[in-house]
Specification:
With 670 residues, the protein is mainly beta. Helix content is 10%, strand content 48%.
């Protein structure tokens, strides 16, 4: 009988203290080391064959703080035959392989990313064929006691049909964090001292690739035939960031494997294990593998457990074990910006603005100082921000910034700069804010958080200071200049992430000023339509404020991003609501390729309807209340999950408008 330790084991101890290198902890570690050495010469298990079913996901994560879930770039599904022979011979053969790219990519995986880990890595740990991690000592290899500290954690009882198994959590950390080592938790059978589970990260010195931020690994073994603890489920997550610029974007390789179908003591010949450990059937045979369901369905079937076990809890436990020691492989100091538009941008109040920034992190990753400055050549004025943030969610910042009046942007910042410079179409209404703020951010589960911010700032109107290449800028609206003290509480639930059938996300903000109160929020709901891949997406925005709401906190509607059939920001006031419903369905489309990179053979069509309403306009502002509910009917077309072309017809205006943009997922870094 097999048993999945991953389903029942406690990942982190509830004990507040860690008693490192106690007699009982070292005794268990020594027993586990001895048991691994005995297994290598054990004649009971001579060889085996198994099946491995795996997925590799290449993901992209974007946005300030990198708190939003990653989006899928490419997915690979693999089927392997796995062979093992005592004492440590391994052979894996890929017999089925299919993939789908959501965005053009030429990523090539290291060979060992395409297979499972045998022997719990043996005596030394290698990843990426030695290019990512090489020869990191295993804590249960001979000599592990001399290199690592050990501490006992929780004991978990697993009830099997034949007997009960007690599994003990054994935390492990290196004696010297300046060397290449692992940090994590080993789960050991208290009776036999067999290794049941490993969950760990690495120290920074273990990373050979300077782009590596961190690597998290979970290896689950199961009890087969009541006596052999062998691979059952494995997960790995490799996170990378750019080395030359600290911008909030990371690439992620996430692998998930399940192993079953064991056959024991087959008398496998030594000759079978010659050559490369991981080999491949000819492509024609791999392509003809009889997959039971389409790849899109398989991705969605596995995406939910991947999201639920996204290794965040492993990193959190590793961080507790490491204390205040750094675990990231990234440099402590780098040039930094939150988006490309902070390096260069164009709008009608600043003209061309150029900026630069720097990021410095403490050696233990406990605090980060980020400074950013810019200069507008149109208004001949400098702006900037310096912010101190802590790993536990505190922020203190001083700033002088140009802001848009609307709560959320309606266009990718890079495209806005191009449209503003070349055509005089600037999709923002601006004011300057100078002040200080203090914030606290606290997570709620894996997808939620609350964020409290209090600020004291001076608000000032801005005039148009630039001239476009063609066209003409519209005036920039005035605001009520003066000093404002505010406090705001935001509760947020983030999206589930990639390959979702259903999704619910949203946020609500309650803001208090000295003379006003403001409540705003947004949400989206994604649900499947029928048995295919069609989805119904509903987006909602709302706002409600008291009488003395200042102009720079007005709710705005109209045109791009809200009601495409109406004029841009024709409507505004102290009350607003927007409902957008679209039916999203993939349809066949031309497939393009350039070298190894290729595009998917579908495009998403999205017919939609949008309803918007505003009321209670603010005196001396250009925005009006809507005469009833405004309606736009339209059609969107999305390609690669990256570009969206949209047309909208205003039922009241009887006019068509079109808009081209980049997907919202990328706005935060553009």
């Amino acid at each position: 009988m097999r048993w999945s330790a991953a389903l029942l084991l406690v990942l982190a101890s509830r004990a507040p203290a860690q008693d490192w290198n106690s007699d009982s902890a070292l005794a268990l570690a020594r027993r586990a080391i001895e048991r691994r050495a005995q297994t290598a010469v054990d004649t009971v298990l001579r060889d085996y064959k198994a099946q491995a079913h795996g997925f590799l996901f290449f993901l992209g994560q974007f946005g300030e703080g990198l708190t939003e879930p990653p989006r899928l770039v490419k997915a690979d599904q693999l089927e392997l035959e796995v062979y093992w022979k005592a004492p440590a011979l391994s052979k894996q053969r890929v017999i089925g392989w299919r993939d789908r790219a959501e965005l053009p990519t030429d990523i090539n995986y290291h060979r060992d990313h395409l297979g499972i880990v045998q022997n719990n890595f043996g005596s030394a740990i290698r990843l990426g064929e030695g290019d990512e991690v090489r020869d990191v000592p295993h804590p249960l290899a001979p000599g592990g006691i001399d290199l690592y500290d050990f501490a006992l954690g929780d004991t978990t009882a697993i009830e099997l049909s034949q007997r009960a198994v007690r599994v003990v959590a054994l935390r492990v950390r290196p004696k010297n964090f300046n060397g290449a080592a692992i940090v994590g938790t080993l789960f050991v059978d208290a009776t036999s001292a067999e290794l049941v589970r490993m969950a760990f990260d690495f120290t920074p010195k273990a990373y050979l690739d300077p782009q590596l931020e961190d690597v998290s690994i979970v290896l689950d073994n199961a009890l087969w035939e009541g006596r052999f603890w062998l691979p059952y489920r494995q997960e790995v997550e490799i996170r990378r960031r750019a080395t030359w610029l600290d911008i909030p974007a990371r690439g992620i390789i996430r692998g998930r494997w399940e192993i079953d179908g064991y056959l024991f003591n087959l008398g496998l010949a030594m000759s079978w294990f010659r050559g490369e450990e991981i080999t491949f059937l000819p492509k024609a045979q791999r392509d003809s593998f009889p997959w039971p369901v389409p790849l899109s369905v398989a991705i969605q079937d596995v995406a939910e457990p991947v999201r639920e076990n996204d290794l965040q809890h492993v990193r959190a436990e590793v961080s507790r074990i490491a204390g205040r020691r750094a675990l990231s492989g990234l440099k402590r100091q780098r040039l930094g910006a939150r988006a490309l538009s902070e390096l260069v941008r164009v709008n009608r109040v600043e003209g061309l603005a150029a900026g630069a920034g720097v990021v410095w992190r403490t050696p233990d990753d406990g605090f980060e100082i980020r400074g950013l400055g810019s200069y507008g050549f149109g208004d001949r004025s400098g702006k900037g921000i310096i912010a101190l943030t802590s790993a536990d969610g505190l922020e203190l910042a001083a700033y002088r910034q140009v802001r848009d009046i609307a709560d959320a942007p309606v266009v990718a910042p890079l495209l806005n700069s191009i449209a503003a410079q070349e055509f005089g179409d600037d999709y923002g209404d601006y004011y300057r804010a100078t002040g200080v703020r203090f914030g606290v951010r606290v997570g709620i589960g894996t997808r939620g958080e609350w964020h409290f911010v209090t600020a004291r700032e001076h608000v000032a109107s801005l005039a148009v200071r630039a001239t476009p290449a063609t066209g003409r800028y519209r005036p920039n609206p005035s605001v009520s200049d003066g000093n404002y003290s505010t406090a705001a509480l935001t509760v947020r639930r983030r999206s589930e992430g990639f390959a979702v059938r259903r999704d619910v996300a949203g946020e609500v903000t309650l803001e208090f000023g000295e003379r006003y109160t403001r409540l705003s929020g947004s949400a989206h709901l994604l649900v499947p339509v029928g048995a295919g891949l069609s989805r119904l997406l509903t987006r909602v925005q709302f706002g409600l404020a008291t009488h003395d709401l200042p102009p720079h906190r007005t709710f705005l509607l109209g045109g791009r991003g809200t009601l495409l059939g109406d004029g841009f920001r024709d409507w505004g006031g102290r009350r607003a609501a927007l409902l957008h419903i679209e039916w999203r369905t993939p349809v066949p489309f031309i497939r393009l390729s350039a070298g190894p990179a290729r595009t998917p053979g579908t495009i998403t069509l999205a017919p939609y309807a949008a309803w918007g309403w505003t009321a209670k306009p603010i005196a001396l502002t250009p925005w009006r209340a809507t005469p009833g509910t405004r309606v736009t009917l339209g059609l969107g077309a999305e390609w690669l999950g990256l570009f969206r072309l949209e047309a909208g017809y205003g039922v009241q205006t009887r006019q068509f408008h079109a808009a081209f943009d980049v997907a919202r997922d990328f706005w935060d870094i553009l």
